[in-house]
Specification:
Elements (H helix, E strand, L loop, with lengths): L10 H7 L3 E2 L10 H9 L11 H14 L3 E5 L2 H12 L5 E5 L3 H4 L4 H5 L3 E5 L8 H7 L10 E7 L12 H14 L2 E5 L3 H8 L3 H6 L3 E5 L10 E5 L1 H13 L8 H13 L4 H15 L5 E2 L9 E6 L4 H10 L2 E2 L1 E2 L5 E4 L6 H13 L2
Helix pairs in contact: 2-12, 3-12, 4-11, 9-13, 13-15
Bound molecules: ligand TLP.
Length: 357
């Protein structure tokens, strides 16, 4: 039997040395031997002087992937999103986003702190805002209203369970935004999971936005880093603000090499992660106390609720049996599939799950 944590007080060291089936997030992946070798071999320079050849190569590669003019390597997805908000807005502006999105819920009120903007949240269905709904929240020009400046979409949508934003909806919102001069940013932390599933290229997705960010440290398996892509003047502002908030890095080629390795080797395999999630979701949906909307399991995240255990109890019972999951929003729980969980471990997680019901 795989990964059972023995009962008794073995202390943290003992616990953390056990190999759990870790479904808390795709952020927990560890760099492979080959990725570490690429990091070891990386040519480096001082990136504050824009002299790190590996960072430069990564940024050029992301320009190619996104079809945008410029790209900026940053330490995290949060920083990429917040630099986008900063570079698109002026203090006092308003930013429209979906009410369950990462920028609004998990980035410690950074838009208020760093950009002095107000967030206008719009409720979507499974993370998807429709144009007609957005239109209701766009401000008219009266002097006493804030200016609606930016619309952010999250693709895939994390809290909705990896839901892919439909391309027709993106197009409609984008055309409307362009018409009335509102900027568009995509938090594409997991855009490659969407792209591999729909066959729509990252370049096409990104063509409907002024800026796009994506992460190397999630399903792509790099230890750290994200990218922000957009027009040259926008990236110049983001570059300055990256420095202001302490994100200027020196010999960052060591970590950029992991991101390059991930782009070259780990994008196609994301389909496996999406498939493991779908298998897991289908199996646990057979448990009568589990509620889950299988139609909304589009990629590698499974959001579900259960009527048998309070959330913390189910999390700890699974943990006792070697399966780690995390709490989602409200009554939801979350299991995320990634390159450090095999199909066999996915089957084992299902088996353990079923024994608890
Ligand atoms: N998401 C993390 C947590 O912060 C919730 C996770 O475990 O899923 N955009 C999206 C859509 C994200 O899911 C995340 C991270 C980020 C941005 C931020 O990325 P990092 O953690 O690199 O700052």
């Amino acid at each position: 039997m795989l990964n059972l944590v023995p009962k008794g007080n073995f202390g943290n060291d003992y616990f953390f040395n056990m190999k759990n089936i870790d479904l808390r997030s795709d952020t927990i992946t560890k760099p492979s031997k080959e990725m570490r070798q690429a990091m070891f071999d990386a040519e480096v320079g001082d990136d504050v002087f824009s002299e790190d050849p590996t960072v430069n190569k990564l940024q050029e590669k992301c320009v190619e992937i996104s079809g945008k003019e410029k790209a900026l390597y940053v330490p995290s997805g949060c920083m990429a999103n917040q630099l986008a908000v900063k570079a698109h807005t002026q203090p006092g502006d308003e930013v429209i986003c979906e009410s369950e999105c990462h920028i609004f819920n998990y980035e410690t009120a950074a838009p208020a702190i760093l950009s002095n903007v107000q967030m206008m949240t719009v409720r979507g269905e499974y993370g998807v805002m429709q144009l007609e709904e957005i239109k209701k929240f766009v401000r008219t020009k009266e002097y006493y209203f804030p200016r609606t400046r930016l619309i952010c979409l999250e693709n895939t949508h994390n809290r909705a369970g990896g839901v892919i934003q439909p391309i027709e909806v993106i197009k409609e919102i984008s055309e409307f935004a362009k018409e009335i001069g509102i900027m568009m940013h995509m938090d594409g932390a997991r855009i490659f999971n969407a792209s591999i599933e729909t066959g729509i290229s990252v370049k096409e997705y990104s063509s409907y936005f002024d800026s796009i960010s994506f992460c190397f440290s999630k399903g792509l398996g790099a230890p750290v880093g994200s990218i922000l892509c957009g027009p040259a003047d926008f990236i110049a502002v983001a570059h300055k603000w990256r420095k202001i908030i302490g994100g200027g890095m020196r010999q960052a080629g060591v970590i950029a090499a992991a991101a390059l390795y991930a782009l070259e080797n780990n994008t196609k395999r994301l389909k496996e992660d999406n498939d493991k999630a779908k298998y897991f979701a289908k199996e646990i949906s057979k448990i009568k106390e589990v509620s889950i909307n299988l139609e909304k399991v589009h990629t590698n995240i499974v959001i579900f609720a259960n009527s048998k255990y309070p959330k913390p109890e189910l999390i700890s019972k699974l943990k006792e049996n070697g399966v780690l999951i995390s709490a989602g929003s409200f009554e939801n729980l979350r299991a995320v599939f990634h390159l450090d969980v095999t199909m066999e471990e996915t089957e084992e997680a299902v088996r353990i799950f079923k024994t608890l019901f």
